[in-house]
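>> Question from a student workshop board

For tomorrow's exercise we were told to take the sequence and the ligand below, predict the bound structure, and bring the output to class. My setup keeps failing. Could a helper post the expected result so I can at least see what it should look like? The ligand is manganese (II) ion.
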Amino acid sequence: MILHLKDTISNEKAQLIAKQYNGFLLKSGEKNVLITEALLKEVPQDIEAFVDEFWVFDNDIQLASKKYRSDKREVKIGNVTIGGQQNATLLMGGPCSVESEEQIRSAAELLVGLGLTTLRGGCYKPRTSPYSFQGMGLEGLKLLVKMREEYGLSVITEARDATHIHEIIEHSDVIQVGAKAMYDQGILRACAKTQKPVLIKRGFGTTLKEFVQAAEFVLSGGNENVILCERGLRTFETNTRFTLDLCGVAWLQEHTNLPIVLDPSHAMGYAYGVPVLSRACVAMGIDGLLIETHPNPKVAKSDASQQLNYDEFKQLVESLRPVAASVGYSMI
Ligand code: PEP
Ligand code: MN
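>> Workshop helper replied:
Here is what the output should look like for this input. Compare the format with yours to find the bug.
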């Protein structure tokens, strides 16, 4: 249950009530918001006098639910805003991994040349094999910071585990919680304590409910700037790397109030499919697209087969604008 407490009650009283019901207390704007376990169906009599409004749920999707807020939440990333009534699809581009200053600078210049604002690049890579490139770590993060300072770009990079989450929170503009990391409570709880935007990727074996529950950890801990990212599921099919769950996206649009980003690069796994899939994604009226691009994909240290070269990336961006416009969106 979510309860909006009356403005007249003191913070101390609100905290006492929260403790009594094992709930989470948030400040949302001026409101004291109390979230209890979902199965509570009636406002307990002893606190009725302190409650303005309440919402009842039949499962643990509460703060993220359209039942609670029918309008889509807005999230500000640098100078741009997604979600809400913006009807804007934010194109976040860059390499899978930050590999060198020269490489990440070329990506930054590519974005600036196209009028884009948000640079991606992994520094702590969650690789399947310990023998693969693991990322540049803090050194890579500092290169992203340098790109922000020199080009005015926002940067998004992923947390692999809780050991470096505070570095990522400090240095990035958007914290990416990877598909393998989205169950990591240390990461989610740390993300709840910042106000920076958090982009949570859906695990490849994660149900929609579990996915949104991960978002609830961040929302209920006090950070309302949460973005969901669909990046493909593991199915019986092996010709593509994963299977992009567009049905799931339609479900999230219908039932949740969070901005939604799609990542066709990881879903497809092969560059040839990324442009067509991207157009399909944008045609759904989404809040963002995450695309991997590399100056020379053949020699990329991670995800070589799916990264677009810069010519392909430029062509993709141009081809997306009319698709976005056809559903009343703009590419930003
Ligand atoms: C990535 O964005 O490079 C990445 C590793 O993504 P995912 O967590 O979706 O596999
Ligand atoms: Mn990648």
